[in-house]
User: Fold this.
Amino acid sequence: MGTTVLKSISAENFASFAEKVTFTCVADGSKKEYAMNTFESGDEVINKVSYVYGSNGSGKTFFCKILREIQRMIALSPLSMMKSSQIKALFPSEELLKPIPKFAFDIAYQELPTTLGIDMIIDDVTYHYEFSVLEQKIVHELLTKKYRRTEKILERTSPSFQDITVKSELKGFEDTKRVVKEDALCLVMAAMLNNDFANMLVDAIKEINIFNMTSPRLNPGELEAFSEERIEKYVKILKKADPTIRGMQVKYEEEEVARQKVDSDDFENREIIQTKTTVGVKTEHALYDHGIEIESGTDQIDFFRDESLGTVKLFTTLPHLFDVLEKGGILVLDEIENSLHPALVKEMISLFINEESNPYHAQLICTTHQPLLVSENVKRDQIWILSKDEFGKSS
Assistant:
């Protein structure tokens, strides 16, 4: 699969977005200012970095949750094949199973469906995927493909599998579409039954990285995120926060904490495995004698215990930054400046602008209420301003 480019997302009757709102990463190709901030994909010019700017309570976090909700619905669809007792055993908090939040401040919207949509470019082909949910049932689903002309691949007009039409790359799913339950997405079930085309699109959506920077630290990445080469890159950036850092030692451990069989006639010997990952970090720091660094001496500290919250936050963010920078992809950070000095945030952003550090045109989308981030070297079409009116509607 080629690198995925996020073109746009949309939402209607979702959280504080009552009316349809569409956010796009497409740049104004006629504007040549700050051209280093853009790249070409297919027929489009795309911004490398996009900002969602607004005051507290304007809807910035809900904007990030549009993508999270699409991913959550993808994760939920295969569970339609499981018994309720199995689902509760896997997800005791039931956080995953909550209904989609509708616009809450007008009762008229409670009887209307929630519609979520995403447009992606993969290998110069644009895919538009959207679905509507009402009372936890999928009442509408649409997938189109555009390369020179637009082709409809999937259309669903009711919760029933009988009202699903599949064409082209999904045509092979026609005879097995009866496995699609009322609360499951057809595209996801086609992927579950090993349709390569559906798998490609589902994986592209699932691989969008979304993080809330208000967390004290982000979840650790994969083992490869702590290779010697990577750690050298991390140390180089961490020095901007703590100039005494000279080296870093990382202990990475992963253990299985739960294993649950999928008890269904449609799948054999399938299991869902839950794992727990822990990362221990010790950093080596310079020692000085009257302000002169001692060449042979370093002091070692417990990084997570002794470093500042901001430096820890920066470190736990870096693996996710470099994952997309080194491979291409999409990273969404909610409140990017949380606990970080604006100079450090600008350093992170510059990694995406620089062609050398971002050769595969990874995209960064961040929410912020820090005006310093959007005040210089930024094009107007990189900034989306969110506001909320007197009726609680974000636009």
In short: The chain has eight helices and 17 strands.
